[in-house]
Amino acid sequence: MTVTTARKRTDSTLSSAERINAWFASRGWSPFEFQREVWDAYARGESGMIHAATGTGKTYAAWLGPVAEALNERHEAVPAAKRRKRDASDPLRVLWITPLRALAADTERALLEPVQDFGLPWTVESRTGDTKSSLRQRQRERLPTALITTPESLTLMLCREDHASLFSNLRCVIVDEWHELLSTKRGAQTELALARLRAIAPQLRTWGLSATLGNLEVARDTLVGNRAPAHASAHSPKRRPARDSVKHDAPAAVPNEANLIRGLVPKEIVVESLVPETMDRFPWAGHLNVKLLPQVLERLEQAESAIVFTNTRSQCELWFQSICTARPDWFEFTALHHGSLDVKQRRSVEDGLRSGRFRIVVSTSSLDLGVDFSPVDVVMQIGSPKGVARLLQRAGRSGHSPGRVSRIVCVPTNALELIEVSAARDAMRAMAIESRDPVDRPLDLLVQHLVTLALGGGFTADGALAELRTTRAYQSLTREELDWAIDFATRGGDTLQAYPEYARLVFDGALYRVRDAQVARRHILNIGTIVSDTSIAVRFMSGGRIGSVEESFIARLKPGDVFLFSGRALEFVRVRDLVAWVRKAKSMAHAIPRWAGARMPLSTELASAVRDTLENARTGVYNTAELQAIKPLLLLQAERSAIPRPQELLIERCETREGFHLFIYPFEGRLVHEGLSALFAYRIAQHGPITFSFACNDYGFELLSPELAPLEEALDGGLLSPAHMLHDITQSLNAAELARRQFREIARVAGLIFSGFPGQQKSIKQVQASSGLLFDVFSRFDPDNLLLHQAQREVLERQLEASRIGRVLTRLSASNVRVIDVERPTPLAFPLLVDRTRQKLSTEKLSDRVRRMTAQSERPAVRGRQQLWPGKSG
């Protein structure tokens, strides 16, 4: 941050457009048509969303609109030299919202450059959880001209009673990487903040940036919000208290008019694969592991710079260790980067990548996003990208500038991932990119936001309802739901009214306000709790913070366990006060290989592309290097069973010493298969008592039973029917226990549980007990509590993907079902067998067991009896 002085000044007699053109020309650039389109729309006072490939200039498309406006106003401005030092810069005009704190420093650097070159009297600063307290204090007195912040930090500023005056001069809000926020509660939090800012500054322009997204119109409409009634302000004075209200159904929402500007800049993306020299005909998840390390090292040695992306942090740690162990002479210029590392280490790596000090960085999605990184020569993707958007996003880090070729090299961790890479390339060319659905009415966040409004000067029920309905997240919010939320925040509802700590709001006859200073402190500390899992700080016993990991991982550790973190082997000592205390391990032996390691499932779009790719193989079209490599495996699958058609469900049935196996292949992704496996087991069991054990992967699932399952009766009885799906899913799983776990996050966001003030944090068990107790109390005494209903809804949608399961059942019920009795497990079934076996054995024992299983499967086998159940459409 600095009050800028011009490094070089352009002729002030030129128009802003001419000065911007000259600025581009001085760098050897020329503005793209879509950038000019954005600048013109901004000058007309319009809002919109910019969709363009990574590295094609979205940042300057959004930023130079406000800059051009300031250049046009310069002749009316008070010269900087005549201002007092404290007021030397223009007041806050632009908010830049970033989803990641790690992006703030790079964004600040990129935005500052044209401001300095044009000599504008602007300051550009960041305000995130990483901002120093001294800068925060200065910002309390005066905000910069352009502020880069996160949704959480923006919400904290809205808690100030003077927030309306803080933002009174605001002209524009730019939301970077909007697709990363869109389908999360942080996205809904952003919507709420934007609604508040529009009420303060009705002429506010809103622009969003996105590189990879399927439902662009939905994303745009969510960002710009709905048209507000003339009186839509949470602070409108003539309102009655919520408890005297009557029903008001939500009116039909009318989105604000806004632009959708696509940056159709020619950008070549090359997707390659590293293919193993020998291909196992019976693959299993992770069987290649780091076997392709020599080929990876060869590619890295040829590159001037490279990013090696992984899908999980455990995989990131493993590959960093493997590269440094194989090439210790590379250690000085090889780095590790993921979101759990300490911010100082992350920034050091980012600076090193930018300056060239680090040639190779092994990273998770923490480097997917961002600006101002020098483009690297090669991007490598360990394992399948699992989604088309992720492949595009990561490929864009190579050749991250207009006109350059983006190149990504995929490194499969098992043979079947070659199919996914080939399918992802086809889907990318067809622009079959994943959509992200906005969050609908999260009431825990609503309760939190009401306390924010009360702290920020108070609110009325009618005013809050009108303002909330200008967001897509709450456009269908009913008056009853708002009344319930206000009552819950005012007295804790019927169940908690005897406990004063839950009485957070006070109605003073005109407005709802917060009067208790401790309530205010707890709320401010609670705003950043919109996370899926509590983070635990990791510290050395001797002192020094290393980073943070998920509570769910730490909860599985015993004292003495060794795990990889921050590129080191660490021995777990104990956990206390939300801190995991560790020491350096003496040996890497028995290190836990996986943490924060939930495997990413196939997206809907990539799953569909995989089915199409398999159809090519079924008809003898092996037209990519990946399919050629995996051809022997697929031919063996066709010989022993079948390669399923796109509109066909393949079920393989066989008997082994373990029992009777059903292998079912919808090819819809692991999360969907987890729900389907429980649903199918429940529905089959309705035809006779039977017990199943499960295994799932991205291609299908296994049901293992001690006796032959009545499959034919179940198929005739509606096994694939979408009817009664929600009832059957809830019956097939311990839905109450899943909702109980989900309620912990909801209770944190709604402010029902508090982890403690700094230095006085509650233990994990205390937090778990508090949320569990509240869940039990509500379930018993307040079963209609809307937060309970939200927990059940989130379990179905977020954990079980119920909507997607419904769509899959509709597809499967219209498909032919082919049941084949096989003599022994096929290449598609083999990884499911290994996944189930993996849960019982250590890594060393698993390898021995897999070798024996492979030898048995390689023995000749013949295809057995086939049966066909026609689908509804056939």
Question: Can you describe what's shown?
Answer:
The chain is of the alpha/beta class and 874 residues long. The protein is built from 32 helices and 26 strands. The strands form five sheets. It has a seven-stranded parallel β-sheet with strand order 3-4-2-5-6-1-7, sandwiched between helices. A six-stranded parallel β-sheet has the order 8-13-12-9-11-10, with helices on both faces. Strands 23-24-22-21-25-26 form a six-stranded mixed β-sheet, sandwiched between helices. Helix 24 crosses helix 26. The radius of gyration is 29 Å and the shape is globular. The chain starts with 15 loop residues before the first helix and ends in a 5-residue tail after the last strand.
Average pLDDT, to the nearest integer? Answer: 83
Determine the number of helices (DSSP H or I, runs of at least 4 residues).
Answer: 32
Largest sheet: 7 strands, parallel
Poorly predicted sequence stretches spanning 5 or more consecutive residues = 1-10, 76-86, 237-248, 593-598
Number of extended strands: 26
Roughly how many Å apart are the termini? 66 Å
Rg, Å, rounded: 29 Å
Helicity, as a percent range: 40-55%
Q: Note the quaternary state here.
A: single chain
Principal-axis shape: globular
For the largest sheet, list the strands in their spatial order: 3-4-2-5-6-1-7
What fraction of the residues are assigned to beta strands by DSSP? 15-25%
Helix/strand-derived category reads: alpha/beta
